[in-house]
Structure formats: C-alpha cells, structure tokens
Amino acid sequence: MSKQTRRQFLSAAGKTAAVAGVATLTGSAAMAEPPAEKVFVHHVYFWLHNPDSQEDKAKLIAGLQKLAKEAKTIKQHHIGTPSTTNRDVIDRSYQVSWLLFFKNKADQDVYQTDPAHLKFIEECSSVWKKVIVYDSEDI
After folding, report:
1. What is the pLDDT of residues 2-13, one digit of tens each?
2. Is the CATH number 3.30.70.100 carried by domain 40-137?
3. pTM over the 0.85 mark
4. Fewest CB within 10 angstroms: 9, 82, 83, 126, which?
C-alpha cells in the first residue's frame, strides 16, 4: 500500500463519494414512479362590496374557516389578506384570499358540490362583489 498525502486522500475520497452519489441519484430516479395523482391547487380571491368593512371581512373569514373544517376533501388551506409587499407585479386590490390544496382534481370536483361549500356560498356571497379563481395541477 502506497502512502498518500492528506490532499491525495481527500481528493480520492471526494471522487468516490461523487460517483456513489451520482449512481444513487440515477438509480433512484430510474426506479421512482411518477405520482399516481396530481395535486390540485385552487386559489380564490375575493373583492368585497364594502372593502373597508371589517364586519364583512370577518363574516367571510369566519365562513371560510367553517368551510375548511367541514369540507372533507380539502387537504390543506390558507386564508390570507394582501401583504404589504409593493412591486409592480403584485395585485393587492382584493380583500381576502383562499388557497386550497386537494389530493387530485376529482377531490376538487367533489368539493364544488359539497353541501358545506354550497352553504358557504349561500351564507357569504352577499359580502363579495367579485371572485377570481386560479386553478392549477402538478405537471
């Protein structure tokens, strides 16, 4: 066995680790199966009839919180209001946003006709004047 300097040892060890890492990555990637289902994202923006009304905003937020508890196909949700960030590409004209994650499009389709969702619309639609929805799926 030849004697190596510390630098030679570290260099050789690094090359061995790099090769092992690439083999592991390519092996894992080759064996990985694509997800069976594509996550479905549903993002809703609400503009209120009375944008300065804290009462209307509170009613909408309470309705969304109740809906989040009752609609069974929602995996994860987020209720928000516009951030104070200020750049040309940011739209802060809405009052409340509602971000939902579903396991797949089928679960989102079930949500659309869920009695809890329909009741939310019935009880809260009087406070908003405009709603815009952005839906997306994993690629």
Report:
1. 566 666 655 666
2. yes
3. no
4. 83
